[in-house]
TrEMBL record:
Name of the protein this chain belongs to: Secondary thiamine-phosphate synthase enzyme
Transmembrane residue ranges: none
Coiled-coil region(s): none
Pfam families attached to this UniProt entry: YjbQ
Organismal lineage: Bacteria, Pseudomonadati, Chlorobiota, Chlorobiia, Chlorobiales
Naturally occurring in which organism (per UniProt): Chlorobaculum tepidum (strain ATCC 49652 / DSM 12025 / NBRC 103806 / TLS)
SUPFAM superfamilies with a match to the protein in the record: YjbQ-like
Entry-linked NCBIfam families: TIGR00149_YjbQ (TIGR00149)
PANTHER family: UNCHARACTERIZED PROTEIN YJBQ-RELATED, UPF0047 PROTEIN C4A8.02C
InterPro entries: UPF0047_YjbQ-like (IPR001602), YjbQ-like_sf (IPR035917)
Protein family membership: Belongs to the UPF0047 family.
Gene3D superfamilies, sorted: YjbQ-like
Length: 141
């Protein structure tokens, strides 16, 4: 078994920002030189998550709208009374309860085994942020 680790860095520009990182993951897999195994992705943040879904502009807008409505920022959240870093971000942490901080994707013949309509998204829940990181851990042969 061989291993390869990489980091994908994202800059987010909106409070909720959905960024397609599929090409970055494919590049990391190509750099690894491995042909079969698994890619594990980990968001290194408590208010940013990962998701596999369809990349379609209107759907992505719907996703953002749904997240804003599901847990509104202006709720009466205790975490916002005395913030740790000056950010009223309780809603971001609460949204994270329903999302994934990691994804694992198999690959074969050096290619991710995603479905036809699947893309990998980094989802910012507490932006904008100048630097966010996704750890890419690849294991295989």
């Amino acid at each position: 078994m061989n291993y390869h680790t990489a980091t994908i860095t994202c800059q987010t520009t909106r409070p909720i920002d959905i960024i397609d990182i599929t090409a970055d993951v494919r590049s990391a897999l190509e750099e690894s030189g491995l042909q079969q195994g698994t890619v594990t992705l980990l968001s290194r943040h408590t208010t940013a998550c990962l998701n596999i879904n369809e990349r379609e502009e209107r759907l992505m807008q719907d996703m953002t709208t749904w997240l804003k409505r599901f847990i509104p920022k202006d709720g009466d959240w205790l975490h916002n009374i005395e913030t740790i870093d000056g950010r009223d971000n309780a809603h971001s942490h609460l949204l994270g309860l329903f999302m994934n901080s990691s994804e694992t994707i198999p690959f074969s013949e050096g290619q991710l085994m995603l479905g036809k309509w699947q893309s990998i998204f980094f989802i910012e829940l507490d932006g904008p942020r100048p630097k966010r990181e996704v750890l890419v851990h690849i294991q295989g042969e």
